[in-house]
Amino acid sequence: MEERYDPQTVELKWQKYWIERNIFKTDPDTSKEKFYCLEMFPYPSGKIHMGHVRNYAIGDVIARYKRMRGYNIIHPMGWDAFGMPAENAAIKEGIHPAKWTYENIAYMKKQLNQLGLGYDWDREVTTCSPDYYKWNQWFFLKMYEKGLAYRKSSFVNWCPSCMTVLANEQVIDNGCWRCDTAVIKKELEQWFFRTTHYAEDLLKACDELKGWPEKVVLMQKNWIGKSEGLEADFKVAGMDERIRIFTTRADTLFGATFICLAPTHQLTEKLASDKEALRKVKEHYGKVDEKVGFFTGRYAINPANDEKIPIYIANFVLMEYGTGAIMSVPAHDQRDFEFAKKYELPIKIVIMPENSELQTSNSELNAAFEDEGILVDSSSYSRLRSDVARIEIAKHIEKKGLGKRVINYKLRDWGISRQRYWGTPIPIIYCEKCGVVPVPEQELPVILPEDVKFTGTGGSPLTDSAKFLDVNCPQCKGKARRETDTMDTFVDSSWYFIGYCFTKGKINFNSELSTSPPFNPPLGRGGQRGDSFEISYWMPVDQYIGGVEHAVLHLLYSRFFTRVIKDIGITGFDEPFTNLLTQGMVCKETLKCPEHGWLFPEDVKDEKCTKCGKPIERGRVEKMSKSKKNVIDPDYLINKYGADTSRLFSLFAAPPERDLEWSDQGVEGAYRFLNRTWGIVFKNSHKLRVTSYELKNENKNLSLVTRHSSPLLRKTHQTIKRVTNDIEREYHFNTAIAALMELVNEITSFESRTDDDWRVLKFSIETLLLLLSPFSPHISEELWEATGNKPSILERAWPSWNENIAKEEEIELVIQINGKVRAKLMAPAGLSDAEVQNRALDEQKIKEIIGQKTLKKIFVVKGKLVNIVIGD
RNA sequence: GCCGGAGUGGCGGAAUUGGUAGACGCAAGGGACUUAAAAUCCCUCGUCCCCAAAGGGCGUGCCGGUUCGAGUCCGGCCUUCGGCACCA
To answer: What pTM does this model have?
Structure first.
């Protein structure tokens, strides 16, 4: 064994060993309980970043730990390979997106292997491969058959920079989720997936997501946004038309003083004569800044009291939600209030606070009163409480046949059309005679044409590819053209975790349809090795790990797809991910020069900018990003410290769910720890190798205990307990690693004198290596071998502790007087309360403090503390 | 504005059920080894009072409460980070 720890040599050796032995290959062995460990697959942008290192280190620890605990593990990895950056690279540098993507994948795969991550690459999926995206198209056709995929014209979010449509979930602060460009509204024919079909189910099932962070479940619930209310019809005076409105506050119906329609409402053209005003309002539609509207000249009849109230067209009323029309109650809705003030419309108070007067100035409201209260001026409903009146009025309207109680969701259908090249072609053909015709299943996949030009202007290159575009209609064989839009890349990531379940990555859902029912074949059904068997064996994912930024988008779409796949008849489960861990961001301090902006650490010397000599500002700790120049390159870390140190530090610096602040010195600390571990094995390697000791029988430990070695033996058992519990309890790796550091400290100061000491030392060191191996696997394998053991350490069982050995014989007894610590003394563990009391009262210092004062009461906390309450 | 986290030494963070606040690591200071430096090893390290020791006071964002005892529970604020935001 080398004296010096050289991570590069060690890591290469064991990575080669694992690959040659096929250690991470998955096998559906039904005699074992399975564990599906999954990390969110990366977009192949070129190189991995520290966020990936952290995410994948967490996943690898879990997979290795569960494996040692005896689970049958599936731990796959793949590539979210469609997307805009590849297309941008094609435009900018003239490289074909496929070439660019596959080169990036090759490099990043090498990096992942250098980190020692234990993936089964036989099940790798690459979403831009026709073998994969064929199934996007297949799902599309199945959904089209079921009416879950449909086409409609609508106002959509359009990013002028990306020249493509965005789903609602992809609009962040009114900007594009990729490039931040302000999103505009544009009317387009688009394909949609009917996510709303599952709205209620997706919402209800949220309560079953026990293994998810509450925060994420809440975000899902809020996004689905259920609200119960009333739809009511307002007749248009002098016309044979009705306007249906939606409200959650039927109790304020008597306070409605006008009606507002969305500018794109089906009746606006008919009602509004002033086309110029309508055009103006449309311009402001979807913008949050200002409320704009105009009077149509028409009136509506309030179904509650037959009052005539004016009909307005207003930009702030959304066509996409409810009925696209609202009754406006300015006294009790802030938005209506602002609109009414601007256009000088009447404000009628119909709800009063229960115990006080409404705050008004000059007998006018200065803001809407939106709380619950008591009804006034509402005919027979006056004096009712608003929550009661809400139901009564709704019932009344329903009875009169002028409306009905309904449930609305904020969740909209998922617009999946994208005007891009690098995505899955939508398998649809447009025929002049037959109209919209789906591509026949046997003709899948519809493959992206390779010979296209990327100009960066005029939208998708597919619209210029005659070879792709021109096609014969599958029905009438006449001239037809293909759909040129491709699918949102979130389609790709909505089912990839099921794709991993197919042996050797050979995805085939057709075989599922013919062989699958009955669903969920029982475990242990002898000899069956079909794909449907594998899906029901491996799914659902037991532990999913990824960034919280996907809390709404990806997770919601995956939950939707899982339901669709079930309804197609392939699977028998609703939820894809049993447990979810959302890891925090990797952050680092930023440096800024007043003249040169963000700086790399190497651009700073003595707190000054090396370019201009001005003093720099130490900025906030922010998420690592290239633009802020506060990134750490994983390649650099691996070269300098090795994968084991990089993994160890990113796991030690913070618990997984919290943000991690990068610290160069902290990395040094992790490296020092591994060096010390190396050192203790090196120092003792000769003797350790010849010391024989059977690890298996835990109770043998007891016979080895001597006065000298028992503290180390105890510490070792305590460490097994702590590390195991810390991993089991929410994956708190930081405290688990701290426990390992304590053990190393103890081992370092231990001196072996007798053969029994050597056996205890060997047991300690071997235990340390077993416990360390999920975190820093290479060095653990190397030292495991150096202590005379056969590889692989990964195939060893996770150690267990003996409570009898782990428990302390002596405890430190804390003595408090009136809740303040006054003395501490060592006492044997397991004393009775009375004995503990006596010892405490016997203590010289305690006697002095008590003196002549009266003893009021004594509390004893077993094994820990005594609190003596005394009077004056 | 609404919803949800978080606030503990110089720093990252521990404290599992209301029971010794500050584990572990980093930084800092002192010492050993060395011709010297690096590396390594040892010691100190919340703060204040005291020459020092012994001892004691204060201390988990702020104010108050419950309790023998509160970082932990309750009420009210402050700061900060996320998410949503004309959803009627």
So the answer is: 0.92
